[in-house]
Structures are given as C-alpha cells and as structure tokens.
Amino acid sequence: FRDLVKLIDEALNKPAEFQKSFKMGGVEFGFHPNLDQMSTAEYVDLMTYNSEPETLHKLIAILFRPINGKDALGNYKIVKYNGSDKYAEIMKQTPLHIVNGALVFFFEFVERVTQEYPEIFNSSGSSEGASAADFWFRWGWYATIVELASSDILKIDKVLKIPALEMLTFLAHKMDRAKLEASLRDQKQGKNITRL
Question: How far apart, in whole angstroms, are the C-alpha atoms of residue 133 and residue 89?
C-alpha cells in the first residue's frame, strides 16, 4: 500500500513537461502538430470534453493520435480526426506526466484563443447575455455549428471541417457586426424619438 501511495505521490508531483510523442501498446502517438490548424470538429470536441476527469481520456485521444508518417527532420503527421472513440480507452493508460504536460500546453492554447476572441468568450452581463448563457448551457457548440451551417443539417459536416480559428474569426466578425448594427439602429431610433 505504501508503495502505491508513493507512486501516486511521485506522479502527481512530477513536473509537467510537454512531451510531443510517446509509445504505448506498440503504437507511437504524437501530439497534434499544429493546434492553430485543427478542425472545428476537433476544437468543439476539445472544448466539450475540457479537462473533466470523466472525459479526460477523450480529450487526450484528440490531442494525441497515432503517427502515420515522419520526414527526415522529425516532423510527423497524425491520423485524421474522426472522433475520439477509437483511441479513448487506450488513452486511459497514458502516463500522468504526459497528460499533465499536454494539458499545460493545451490550456495555454485555450487561454490565447480566449484572449484573441473576446467577442465570443466574454459575456456582456446583460439580461440578453444571461438568456444567451442559458441557451448556450443547453445547446453548447451545437447551436453555433447549426448557425454556421445556416440551419441546414446537410452542411454540418462541411462546417466541422473548417479550421477552428477560421470559424472563430468568422463568429467574432459576425458578433461585432451584429453589435454595430444594433448600435446604429439604437442611435437612429434615439434620433427619431427626440424629433417627436
């Protein structure tokens, strides 16, 4: 029992160093080579799984996938994303120091994206914002994907293949434009009221 406690203590206190690849079960897994180029599907799933203990293995299965090619410089490609189910169970065996290192790297990416797109990730605190938060809590990213697909279920797969940062830029632009249009409408209505 003491040996087990010692191993757990060592694992939890081991510094979180990022490791871009590792072997497990005879398969070499590589960390996503470029998070800025991930698809909307990868991004949405990562944000959905976040770092909850119950879904952490699914998050790791998105970030680390089997390597399916390397060049002479050591750059690699990973298998195409097709959901996390195929590798999720094996990822439960990923060494904790690899998981911790990946999470530090991933959370730095999330923090950067959150700062780059305040239009999307910062709430206004208004009653409209509270209603939107309720809607968001119920429907999450699905509502965004449906909006981007113009409510056409046949376009959802196409939207999920768009690079995530491209999708976020589009959403931020759309939200800024809606705010501008609302502000101009309010100004125009204000002028009409003062004329009466």
Answer: 32
